[in-house]
Amino acid sequence: MTQAQARSVRLGVFGGAFDPPHRAHRALVESALAQCQLDRLHIVPTGHAWHKTRILSPAAYRVDMAQLAFGDLPQVQIDTREVGRSGPSYTIDTLRALSSDNPGAALFLIIGQDQAAALSRWHEWRAIVDMAMICVAGRADPESDAPAFAPPQGLQARFRTLDLPISAISATDIRQRAGAGLGIDSLVCAPVARYIALHRLYQAT
Question: Average pLDDT in the 81-107 region?
Answer without folding.
Answer: 93
